[in-house]
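quick q for whoever's on today - can somebody do inverse folding on this one?? i tried earlier but teh output was garbage lol. tokens:
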């Protein structure tokens, strides 16, 4: 599965790419709050979302991006909002939020009350709108990995008898929604996944063992969930994966090198490209990339942080790219920020202009490296 390297060179992932989410404009934040308070209708909010996404699309094209997203402007969370679109899944308010380094998110959770399935999904319309306004650019759509429901969902008693049953239904549901997105014109799909980071640290593995789970077996199930979910995608649909360690108000959730699961990630996933965090010491070095054996697997190096406004020394970024070529050829490498700018609607701690400076920085460095 996959396209040739020659074809991929003029397609996604691009030399200068991005993870997808952008800071929400104040007008949009205000409108969402008004809708929550019943001050405006759903239709009025939708109109404002449409207008702000249209502006965002033009801005992305203006700064020189080739992959264009809707910034996840219609979402509150990068994952919960999408996962609630499956049959058998609903949102709820738990007792506490998710724990990040030094902070806690607002309270939001998802639970599985019945068998997981796909009959329709409201975000297909979100992609249709984006695809209708990008012009000759490439519309990129990001969805959470099936593993996120497996790890983040609270499963009611009696719904599933085993992890394998859960994974089987997740695969079927994802095959359905991926085909539906393709039918509407999606040719560049990104799967976002923070679950792999659990395997990167002793603490994460210990937490699984404490719940009676075998980390090696769970890792195999997670890899299977990805591979079988995308196994039926058409040849001209490119699928990348972003592996993240958490991104909330410029904080993170976990640390650890890719080494602990490097053979699975770099040698066992059937994606076309991997967006990887490498912006600080929490991600370790490039040595795990030695397990990249495919000439058609693109590695997008997240060397520019989206968490803070300071611009990295371009020469240091170029030196790190050169270091990565010890393991992966330059023609298989790309550059991006390490994550999006607003994985939740609160966003990271920088301004919109600083956000665009980061994007321009990525593009300029990429132009210098891949002349």
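ok took a stab at it. sequence:
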């Amino acid at each position: 599965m996959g396209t040739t390297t020659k074809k991929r060179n003029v397609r996604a992932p691009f030399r200068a790419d991005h993870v997808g989410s952008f800071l929400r404009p104040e007008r949009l934040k205000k409108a969402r709050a008004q809708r929550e308070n019943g001050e405006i209708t759903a239709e009025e909010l939708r109109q404002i979302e449409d207008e702000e996404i249209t502006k965002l699309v033009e801005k992305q094209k203006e700064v020189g991006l080739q992959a264009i997203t809707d910034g996840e402007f219609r979402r509150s969370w990068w994952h919960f909002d999408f996962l609630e679109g499956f049959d058998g899944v609903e949102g709820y308010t738990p007792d506490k939020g998710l724990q990040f380094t030094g902070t806690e998110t607002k309270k939001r959770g998802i639970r599985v009350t019945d068998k997981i399935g796909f009959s329709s999904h409201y975000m297909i319309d979100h992609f249709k709108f984006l695809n209708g306004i990008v012009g000759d650019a490439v519309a990129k759509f990001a969805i959470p990995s099936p593993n996120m429901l497996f790890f983040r969902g609270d499963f009611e008693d009696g719904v599933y008898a085993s992890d394998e049953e859960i994974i089987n239904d997740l695969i079927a549901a994802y095959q359905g929604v991926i085909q539906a997105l393709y039918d509407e014109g999606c040719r560049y799909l990104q799967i976002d996944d923070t679950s792999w980071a659990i395997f990167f640290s002793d603490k994460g593995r210990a937490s699984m063992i404490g719940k009676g789970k075998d980390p090696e077996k769970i890792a195999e199930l997670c890899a299977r969930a990805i591979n079988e979910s995308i196994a039926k995608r058409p040849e001209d649909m490119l699928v990348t994966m972003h592996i993240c360690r958490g991104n909330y108000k410029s904080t993170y959730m976990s640390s650890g090198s890719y080494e602990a699961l490097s053979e699975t990630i770099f040698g066992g996933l059937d994606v076309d490209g991997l967006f990887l965090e490498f912006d600080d010491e929490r991600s370790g070095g490039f040595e795990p990339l030695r397990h990249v054996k495919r000439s058609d697997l693109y590695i997008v190096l997240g060397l520019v942080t989206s968490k803070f406004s300071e611009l990295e020394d371009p020469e240091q970024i170029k030196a790190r790219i050169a270091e990565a070529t010890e393991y992966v050829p330059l023609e298989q490498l790309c550059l991006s920020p390490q994550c999006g700018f607003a994985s939740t609607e609160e966003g990271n701690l920088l301004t919109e202009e600083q956000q665009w400076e980061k994007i321009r920085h990525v593009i300029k460095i990429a132009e210098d490296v891949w002349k």
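fwiw DSSP finds twelve helices and twelve strands in the chain. also Residues 1-10 have pLDDT under 50 and may be disordered. so keep that in mind when u check it
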